[in-house]
Design brief:
Layout lengths: L3 E4 L1 H19 L5 E6 L3 H16 L5 E4 L8 H4 L18 E9 L3 H11 L6 E9 L11 E5 L6 E6 L1 H4 L3 E6 L10
Parallel strand pairs: 2-3, 2-4, 4-5, 5-6
Antiparallel strand pairs: 1-8, 7-8
Length: about 190
């Protein structure tokens, strides 16, 4: 683990629980609510938020996974052979309130791609956004409805979210970008 730690495992847990409360409060309950995690780290975060809602409200919220690979406007810049992680939306989106969940909100381009992908699967009543970290530097007029932590950054920094389910530990790190990791995320 390199970089300066800006969120511990405990802080990540508290942020996801707080976000779960905010989502239910804004929805005025859980009826019609679905969570869709953006592949890759948005999926376990969506599952954690759904588990927190189940613990607090006693309601099982459907959780899906959305792969936005082919909706990205920078697809030709990120890889010659992109890795497709798969979309799994085992519920009807029509008329639902969909909360998109992602780890880091940066330029807004990932979220724009996610909304484009989502509407190919149905017409939700509303789309909201929950992110663990909002680092600023938007290039599109997109904002999160629910934020775990706002972290002012420079464009030369990289915010890395590590989750137990993928990385073996929970942490959020901030580091100086190197040429190898200078591609924007989020």
């Amino acid at each position: 683990m390199s970089g300066r730690q800006i969120m511990t495992a405990d802080e990540i847990r508290r942020a996801t629980v707080r976000i779960s409360h905010e989502i239910v409060e804004k929805q005025v309950g859980t009826a019609g609510l679905t969570l869709v995690g953006i592949q890759r780290r948005g999926v376990p975060l969506a599952r954690r938020i759904a588990a927190a809602i189940a613990d607090n409200e006693g309601a099982a919220i459907p959780v899906g996974a959305l792969d936005i690979t082919f909706y990205r406007d920078d697809l030709s810049l990120i890889a010659q052979q992109p890795v497709v992680k798969g979309t799994d939306l085992p519920f009807d989106l029509n008329g639902a309130t969909v909360v998109l969940v992602d780890d880091v909100l940066y330029t807004g381009r990932t979220i724009r791609a996610a909304m484009d992908a989502l509407v190919d699967f149905g017409r939700p009543q509303a789309i909201r956004l929950a992110v663990l970290v909002d680092r600023g530097h938007r290039e599109l007029p997109i904002r999160a409805d629910h934020v775990g932590k706002n972290v002012p950054t420079s464009r030369e920094e990289v915010v890395r979210v590590q989750l137990e389910e993928i990385d073996g530990e929970d942490a959020v790190l901030i580091d100086r970008a190197t040429a190898a990791v200078a591609a924007p995320v989020g």
